Amino acid sequence: MKKYENLIPLGRLEEPEDDAGPATFLASRDANYVNGVLLNVDGGRLA
Questions:
Q1: Where are the domains of the chain?
Q2: How far apart are CA 37 and CA 12, in angstroms?
Q3: Which of 15, 21, 28, 43 could form a disulfide with 8 if both were Cys (CB 3.0 to 4.6 A apart)?
Q4: Torsion of CA 18, 2, 44, 14, to 10 degrees
Q5: Which pLDDT tens digit goes with each residue over 1-47?
Q6: Which pLDDT value is given to residue 28?
Q7: Residue 26: what are its φ and ψ, rounded to 5°?
């Protein structure tokens, strides 16, 4: 898996905890006015 880490700007593979924050935000009332947005949780790979 080391060869894939070089493709990610953060330099590491995704952990399950990396999805928890964005998923919690989107499920919360804080995101009730958010729509039509693609939220990339990819370590900066598509940035």
A1: 1-47
A2: 25
A3: 43
A4: -10
A5: 678 888 899 889 899 999 999 999 999 999 999 998 888 999 998 87
A6: 96
A7: -65, -25
How far CA 26 is from CA of 9, 29, 34, 42, in Å, comes to: 24, 8, 8, 16
3-state secondary structure 1-47: CHHHHCCCCCCCCCCHHHHHHHHHHHHCHHHCCCCCCCCCCCCCCCC
At 19 the pLDDT is: 94
Amino acid identity at 29: R
Query: Model-level pTM?
Result: 0.70
